[in-house]
Design goal:
Length: 182
């Protein structure tokens, strides 16, 4: 029993992956991957993308005002990082749900790419040497969140209109699908 308990805590000790793990458990146990209930998640994801777009746009504007200043402010706060991490986890979970329900393969790849892109841009943001570099990364984040909002299906018809792309495999790795980071 003690070995099982240690394994349990080790497995769930990874906070960054807990959200995805829980979604996958619920999907396998309760069949949450039905098309009818994925739209609530799409709406929540869209709302978060729009909120993050506004925040990153405002932070980029402030950083551009003093490009040679040391990087600081909301963009480097734990709250912003937590929201970016939640966005990334949500995108990865949506990708897994789309895949589990045998949904559009290209949409699955797009969400997987957004999850990886958000993580990489957050890392680049924390490694910015000055506010000018920070502004460039924040502008890229702004574009990512705008694209996330635009690509997210708004209703069942929009979800059904998606095509499967070229054979169902993600053609480019997430690193190749995004422009190079600073």
């Amino acid at each position: 029993m003690q070995g099982l308990s240690r394994w349990w805590w080790w497995f769930f000790g990874w906070q960054r992956h807990l959200g995805v793990v829980l979604v996958l458990i619920f999907m396998s146990a309760g069949g949450l991957a039905r098309a009818g209930d994925i739209f609530n998640d799409f709406q929540a994801f869209n709302a978060e993308a729009q909120a993050l777009q506004i925040l990153s746009e405002q932070a980029a504007k402030k950083a551009r005002a003093h490009p040679f200043a040391p990087p600081k402010g909301f963009a480097l706060s734990g709250e912003f990082a937590r929201r970016i991490d939640a966005f990334s986890t949500h995108a990865a979970a949506l990708s897994a749900r789309i895949d589990a329900m045998d949904g559009p393969k290209d949409l699955r790849c797009i969400y997987r790419g957004m999850a990886e892109d958000a993580k990489k841009r957050l890392t680049a943001l924390h490694h910015a040497k000055n506010a000018g570099e920070q502004a460039v990364v924040l502008a890229d984040m702004d574009a990512l969140f705008m694209d996330a909002s635009e690509v997210t299906p708004k209703d069942k018809a929009a979800f059904a209109d998606r095509h499967d792309g070229d054979g169902g495999q993600c053609q480019a790795a997430p690193d190749q699908a995004i422009k190079s980071l600073p």
